[in-house]
Amino acid sequence: MKRSTFLFLLIATFLGVATYLVKQNVISIEQDLLMAQKKIFQLEESIHILKAEWSHLNEPNRLQKLVENHLSYSPMEGNQLVSMDKVPSKENDKDYQERLVTLASAKIL
Amino acid sequence: MNHQPFTPSLASLTRERFSVSLKHAMDVARTRLLVATAIFSFGILIIGGRLFELTVIRHGEEPSIAEQDLTSGLRTGRADIIDRQGQILATTITTSSLYANAKQIINAEEAAQKLLTILPNLNVKDILKRLQSDRPFIWIARHLTPVQRHEILRLGIPGLSFMRDQRRIYPHGHLVAHVLGYTDIDNRGIAGIEKGMDSVLSSQNEPLQLSLDLRFQHIVRDEVLKGMEEFGAVGGCGAIMDIRTGEIIAMSSLPDYDPNHPTQATEDQLFNKVTLGTYEVGSIMKVANTGLALESGVATLATKFDASHPLKVGRFPITDFKGKNRWLNLAEVFVYSSNIGSAKIALAAGAEKQQAFLKKLGYLDPPPSFELPEVGAPLVPKRWREATMITVSYGYGLSVSPIQTMLGIMTLAGGGERKKPTLILNRAGIPKGEQVISRNISRTLLQLMRYVVTAGTSRKANIPGYYIFAKSGTANLRVGRHYQTDRVMANFVAVLGKAMDDPRYVIYVMLDDPKRLQKTYGYNTAGWNAAPVGGRIIARMAPMMGFVPFEHESEPLDPFFRNVKF
């Protein structure tokens, strides 16, 4: 009888401590979760603003001015497009070199 | 029953008496034990039941925190607007608005001076006066950027606080102004898509995807703006529409405004010329007039009309611009843009057929409603007299909005179907429109418009390698009831095709009052200004749309064209 009482007391203490620890753990995890959610919200908000800013920076008029000032690019022209069978290939093209030269002189390649 | 306390002193009693009283005591003890057991069992049962209820039956608080859906994204209260490539055109951002509790401000002058270093636009006198007052809430500045907010926080002035505020912003500013419109201070749409789609935008969270393509929008705006500068025009507009779906790919009206600051815009800037303005289109109406001749059976391509002498209507003679002064067949009337010939076609068809045909194209009724609230109804003459018949045939006396002109051209040259315009991305596939003119006639009209580009008045819009079909139209501007001799509205409409009989896009350009210049040899007609602007738009958009230029133009399908030279 004495032994079983002792045993149950032991189990009860153990369970009590375990419950306490689990509860504390849950509280701290919940805290973390709330913090994480707050952070997610803040990040989402800043991503949202950054997206708007990115869109603003990609304003075509601005890009065009930058390109005109800093790059030697010009708008693509139709004659720069060729169909696939016009592209010279080494395997099945006898006049490979010749066609490469013609395309290069036409400023396609 | 005589109760006796069960105490060790009982042991001193006689043995017999002891055994009887012991038995009695044991009964008492057992009863007490039973009662205690019952009470404790009941208590444990209650605790167990409560435990069961808490853990199994009732949902704990934890899951609702842990299991909430975070994938839905940020809710801003008003949906974003994006273009067909996904670029953000309009969005709502959370801003910070700065307010102060004047009671807590220690040194108002110092605070005002410090704030001025970050917000240079502040009115110092006004702010200082308000900071020195004793009010607990005063606005200092609204809608600050995160950087400004951060810097103000770093100043560490006690009594300043921030409030969360929502603001609609348009990252592309002027570029998409008339399509998007703008909202009021409470984020309610009051113009453009913001107004037309207000209920959708304020109820859903997913972005609204437009049919507009920012790249082509820029091309149109850029080229029309350059064209206005080049030819001294005071205004202009341009648009691109997909013939098969009715989607508006680009739409720009100039001068325009910044929807981020709509209060600074003038009336002229806010006006959308593409949908709200109605204009006489001049010779562009000849596409419809030629369609009328073919559809009503009044003439075939070979039917000749006498354009050798000016036509008298009342006091006014009708003449041709650079007239050929001879008999012209129907095709020539169109390609050389003869007013006399067009008038004679209309007279041959009669007022009834002319009106019926224009009605079929939608030129006599308000355009079908779509997402923009700013839509102008055509100005139709009240009485349809002979003079009306004649002037309408070459584009005077009937004013329609550019979008309606485009819809008409879509029907006339794009296969004969009438389609509805839309600004919302089409996900459903190509809609079927009502067939109002025959497919063959539509093909013939398209072919005729090709000759206008290769041999007619729109040669400056010809980009080698592309199937461009076009018609230009110049209309004298009217002030009151009188036409001005030297001020014109130059219109140009073009169709871009993948092949000779595969029209894909309609392009419209209008220049308001272009000047006669030396480089245009003193002309201010559309062929010299609006047409080259249209050509430049096509030259830039076609490669981006993946149109591969042809090496040899395919032969016209109609045998009639094989024997004519323009």
Task: Write a structural description.
The complex is a heterodimer of chains A (109) and B (566). By secondary structure, chain A is an all-alpha fold. Helices cover 71% and strands 0% of the residues of chain A. Chain A is elongated and about 105 Å long. The relative contact order of chain B is 0.10. Chain B is of the alpha+beta class and 566 residues long. The longest helix of chain B is centred in the N-terminal third of the chain and has 43 residues, at 15-57. Chain B has helices at 15-57, 62-66, 108-118, 124-131, 146-155, 177-180, 192-196, 198-203, 214-231, 267-270, 285-296, 330-335, 339-349, 351-361, 386-393, 402-413, 439-454, 530-544; strands spanning 81-82, 88-100, 138-144, 160-169, 208-209, 235-242, 248-254, 279-280, 304-306, 311-313, 316-318, 327-329, 399-400, 417-418, 434-435, 467-479, 482-499, 502-512. Chain B has 18 helices and 18 strands. Chain A binds chain B through residues 26, 30, 33-34, 37, 40-41, 44-46, 48-49, 51-53, 55-56, 58-61, 64, 75-83, and chain B through 62, 65-66, 70, 73-74, 76, 87-89, 91, 93-94, 146, 169, 171-175, 214-215, 217-218, 221-222, 463-466, 539-540, 542-544, 546-549.
